[in-house]
Amino acid sequence: MSTARLKMVGIGKSFPGVKALAGVDIEVGQGEILALLGENGAGKSTLMKVLVGVHQPDCGEIYIDGQLVIIQNPRQAQELGISIIYQEFNLIPFLSVAENIFLGREPRVIKGVVNWKKLYAQTKELLERVGLRHISPKSLVNELSIAEQQLVEVAKALSYASKIIVMDEPTAALNEEDTRRLINIMVGLKEQGMAIIFITHRLEEVGRVADRVTVLRDGRFIGSSAAQELSKDDIVRMMVGRDINDLYPERNDKLGETVLEAAGLNFYDHLKDVSFSLAKGEVLGIGGLMGSGSEHLAKALFGVYPKIQGTVIVEGGKPISSIREAIDAGVALVTDDRKGLGLVLNMSVGKNILMPTYRHLAKLGVLVNRTKHTDIIQKWIEKLKIKVHSPSVEVVTLSGGNQQKVVLAKWLEMNPKVLILQEPTRGIDVGAKGEIYQMMKNLTDEGKSIILISSEMPELLGMSHRILVMHAGRITGELLNEEATQEKIFMYATGGEVG
């Protein structure tokens, strides 16, 4: 590391009733990757919003290349060479890659006339810098994979001639292969002299790419050290203020009879002759790379595809052919897109929890027992330790981990026999992960069954009794927990065979 590219000193920020930041210091050098870590609610997002001018600090100073700066808005931050890439992409799907990267800043021949040749040439150069040589600047964003869209966001940040890039959970939606690709891009940008602030909950990535680690907790600076000097346990202890032993609880060893059976599922090229069974009290892991078919399998089991070939049967009942039939049969789906599909963000926490149960609590669309629905909401807030000062607050104000708990609460209230968890810990901190894993253990102890669809191999290995691996719509491997390894899962996930 050479000179300090960015220093934030004594940053404080309060909101009504909440002290979000209390005298926080961070520093990142030219040609350095700083991992900024902390549980959800630790203050990371607020600190970065201060850096990019979304919030004004109550106290503290910001220095760029040794010069004191006052950043009053996001445009000024961009002019100072600061870019932020949020976890939720800020791209317009039906515009081209070039139009997205230079939106509002297109090179012009004369006023009002875009210089398309120059626009495409500049875009092509940026795409090459981020390893997207195969993508045309004219391609529509909605034609790209999630990983490619993530790299377009990086290209857009580079188009501002950025010196400091903040990456907020950039690998959260990526599989292992695409994560490795993005990490290589980050290392390349570092070698070009960029200062990168890397926010992640995947601690295994910290050792792979970060030069230094800074940890926040409860809005306060806890410490900063070279990444190679900290073990994973050290980082967890700094983040949560305690040791987290045995992140994955012991598996329930009392499996019962078959509770769900899927036979011959075929759905275009997405699912090809998929068959398996699920036992009572079992956690069945589903692994695979992006595009493997696991997402379509989750929807098929939940009755989203009424014309699918094959059958899904719960406890010998009739085949499921709709979402309502799936729910009535005791199947619940916790989707990987909690903000887009799992929650209504502008509704209250309480209303989100009650959503699937309204038809059981209401007559003619009117809630008839308000005391009962209040009791239900309070029960799940307490049981899942949802951090919220009132059930009436909008769910959008909660951290990622607490939003996920709200999604879990609304389906657990339905008392499902089979719970499909699709990327249940994506984008949440290690403390909340431990709580969700323990909840899964408790559910299986009660005789409920879980299908765990995850791109995190340690999670699959730590929680599953069996693991099915998918590739190109097919189940290519089945592994009992005691024989499963990351290498075997990856081999099956790429269509290979394990010797």
Automatic annotation (TrEMBL):
Pfam families: ABC_tran. One of its GO terms (cellular component) is plasma membrane. Residues 6-243, 250-497 form the ABC transporter domain. Keywords: ATP-binding, Cell membrane, Membrane, Nucleotide-binding, Repeat, Sugar transport, Translocase, Transport. It is found in: Cell membrane. It is a peripheral membrane protein. Gene3D superfamilies: P-loop containing nucleotide triphosphate hydrolases (3.40.50.300). InterPro entries: AAA+_ATPase (IPR003593), ABC_carbohydrate_import_ATPase (IPR050107), ABC_transporter-like_ATP-bd (IPR003439), ABC_transporter-like_CS (IPR017871), P-loop_NTPase (IPR027417). The keyword Oxidoreductase does not apply. PROSITE patterns: ABC_TRANSPORTER_1, ABC_TRANSPORTER_2. It comes from the Bacteria. One of its GO terms (molecular function) is ATP hydrolysis activity. This is Sugar ABC transporter ATP-binding protein. It comes from Desulfosporosinus fructosivorans.
